[in-house]
Amino acid sequence: MTLDGITKDLEWMKRAGIAGCQLADVSFGTGQAIEDKVLFGSDRWYQALRHAASEAKRLGLELAIFSSPGWSLTGGPWVRPEQAMKKLVWSQTIVQGPGRFNGTLPQPPSNNGPFLDQGSGGRGPQQDPTYYSDSAVIAVRLPAAEQDMLALDPKVTSSSGQSDLGLLFDGKYNTAASIRPPADGGPAWLRIEFGQPFTARAITIGTTSGIPVGRVLAIGEDGIAQTLVTLPGAQHYRQGRVRTFAFGPVTAKTYPMEFTGGPIGPAQTISQEPTQPARQYVLTELRLHSGGRVHRWEEKASFCHLFEYQTVPTLDYPPYLVVRRSDVIDLTSKMRPDGSLSWDVPEGRWAILRMGYSLTGAKEPTGSTFWFRLRGR
After folding, report:
1. What b/e string do you get for 257-291 counting C-beta neighbours within 10 Å, with b at 16 or more?
2. Is the pTM of this model over 0.85?
3. CATH topology of domain 147-312
4. For position 123, what pLDDT does the model report?
């Protein structure tokens, strides 16, 4: 880009009857590449901008300009970590009352990423600054129907036959297990088997790249399989990597999952192309819930996008499955700066949530490489 080239471009626009132009710095896709690049915000860039503005004025053309590189106008090196886009994070401590609780609440995840301890991924440098701050401590009395599936020591098997399936139940979204289809063909599968009947009302599935195509089933005492969830469910063209599906109560000992196609990407969502089986299905977390859950709450809480909620309503639950307002206690003032808490626990089983916020890691992806920085709030 040269000053003479700018003049020639604008004079051509004038001759062609074009009323003006817009100057945008967008590092996206392909185009004409030159050796001597003029970087956004450099002295040469400002010189070229002044020249373009004066030439446009001379020729009677309108000249508009992006106020920062990229599409969103929010990212740049001026965005400090405490000003960048954030997400709600939490840790959970289960206590039984009545009694006295004296302990330290685990700090919620402070890493950059879209959900809890899930990594941000994406292009650009990965050693970015992090940020965390506490916001509240809340205690919730759990309904009697809430039962941790892991307390029943279920047996978990898969079509891969691997031994690392315990990573799916460690409460972490930054560990994963891969499920491969059988060598002789057929869908990949995973099976959760309980020694006694377990009543499920929802399932949470975490993945590294999106919810695969498939289904979640329950096998009753009569051996008949019932489909509980058809995966991936309604979604926007950019889907999230963690999703909770709520369904009517089902009591069974065996809960199989089948995977027949990889996660549906933006292009496939728009074109509705048939999905193809994946070589492997990488899951980060898997949990059956005995209590009621808000259907697709991760999207409804804006951890990822859906934009259309009419097809994903939450079920109507009976009162004994719903947390009452009187069973929610604000303990924020009781937690010390080091995370320690002393509390006289009332009767019942309680979940203490230490809540805070950390960075999503979102950046301005379409600006010049030098400006590939955190996005502001």
Report:
1. bbbbbbbbeeebeeeeeebebbeebbbbbbbbbbb
2. no
3. Jelly Rolls (2.60.120)
4. 47
